[in-house]
């Protein structure tokens, strides 16, 4: 098994181990980010009565990686509907895809599949027609690491 597969499987295992601890009953979700230096960062959504201020599950982990100035290589979001439901992978929303592009188009993200298998693709594979292709790379360099 190659290093990429080991990282992806470890991320999934951390997610399914964490959810029942944080959310013993009902809905639960966690994001796991892996960094180039081998760290794992986790985050959960902020619960609030005002749904207009809720952030995606991945945001906290992205902020942690950014805080420590480490390059993100992988991102995975796992949820379950309740304590009796199977775990499922959620592809990052468009906004999180934009946020993750800070670390490059080769960041690998877990994606939703019909058979609920664990699959990662690069942001470039997920967004082959991204709007940044309309600009020369040097014009966009100051927006990324």
List the helices and strands and how they pair.
Elements: H1 3-22, E1 28-35, E2 40-43, H2 59-67, E3 72-80, E4 88-89, H3 94-100, E5 108-110, E6 120-122, H4 123-126, H5 137-140
Parallel strand pairs: 3-5
Antiparallel strand pairs: 1-2, 1-3, 3-4, 5-6
Protein name: Cytidine deaminase
GO molecular function: catalytic activity
Short descriptors:
30% helix, 145 residues, 5 helices, six-stranded mixed sheet, alpha+beta, 6 strands
Plain-language structure description:
Helices cover 30% and strands 20% of the residues. With 145 residues, the protein is α+β, with helices and mostly antiparallel strands. Strands 1, 2, 3, 4, 5 and 6 form a six-stranded mixed sheet that branches.
Brief write-up:
The protein is 30% helix and 20% strand.
Strand content: 15-25%
Q: Helicity level, as a percent range?
A: 25-40%
For the sheet with most strands, the description reads: 6 strands, mixed
Name of the CATH class: Alpha Beta
Number of domains: 1
The CATH topology label is Cytidine Deaminase, domain 2
| Count of helical regions | 5
InterPro entries: Cytidine_deaminase-like
Protein name: Cytidine deaminase
Organism: Romboutsia weinsteinii
GO molecular function, one term: catalytic activity
